[in-house]
Amino acid sequence: xPISAEAVRNxxxxxxxxxxxxxxxxxxxxxxxxxxxxRATGFGEKETLFRLSRLLALGMAKYExxxxxxxxxxxxxxxxxxxxxLAAKDTVKxxxxxxGEGKESVVYEGLGVGRLVLKFHRVGQRSFQxxxxxxxxxxxxxxxxxxxxxxxxxxREFLALQKLHPKVPVPVPVERNRHVVVMSFVHGMILSKCTxxxxxxxxxxxxxxxKEAYRLGxxxxxxxxxxxxxxxxxxxxIDWPQWVETDHPNAGETLERDLRVVLGYFERKFxxxxxLDRALAEVTG
Length: 285
Fold this sequence. Notes:
- The protein has 285 residues and is of the alpha+beta class.
- It folds into three domains: 73 residues, Arc Repressor Mutant, subunit A (Orthogonal Bundle); 92 residues, 2-Layer Sandwich (Phosphorylase Kinase, domain 1), CATH 3.30.200.20; 96 residues, Transferase(Phosphotransferase), domain 1 (Orthogonal Bundle).
- Helices cover 45% and strands 20% of the residues.
- Strands 4-5-6-8-7 form a five-stranded antiparallel beta sheet, sandwiched between helices. It has a three-stranded antiparallel beta sheet with strand order 1-3-2.
- The radius of gyration is 21 Å and the shape is elongated.
- The protein starts with a helix and ends with a helix.
């Protein structure tokens, strides 16, 4: 479902109060009982049900009858909480057009102090299980709803951007709220959708950025032609939620995979042969 800025603007104070209560209670309940929700909001049953009916109609919450009347927050409701908080701080003044969708996110343009990008993390069931196996920031046990897993993913990406900017060309981190990362707008085109004037120079630039990130203790973890923005001879590396530290047990394997994917793309697309061993030595040397 597309994110509706109008729906967020039209939420009333009591609607937001119910969303906040659901967010808190979902740390304890998979489906929040109606009675518990009423106590948390201080509303009577009639008012609680009225507010829930509005949120259900907006697709911001879900209802389950078995084994009891229970409610849960879904991504549209979590989006609303994040956008409301970002707007209250004047970080985001307007939500702009849809930019694109990735494996674990949807991305919109926004307006704050200039053009912004708002990345809404969306960790689903399959990627959540993968994240528990591969990423150190996911708890191995316990109740972690997808919305909270998405917030952890967003926090992880925001941390990478903070570590890397300004020494590595990445989107400038502006703010993070829940599962939403607000960053600077990056001009240019995705590498997979363009033909650079000087492909060898672009490859050399990417390797130089990977080396600088490595020096700062960060390995991308999902580097490919889809995660590089190109404008002339300038390259910006994007999409960092899967990064790992250089002292991570899988660091060597992760770096090698990143480089193999990038080198393989340049060989297939531009006929540039670049030995993997040489690239590894340059990045880690």
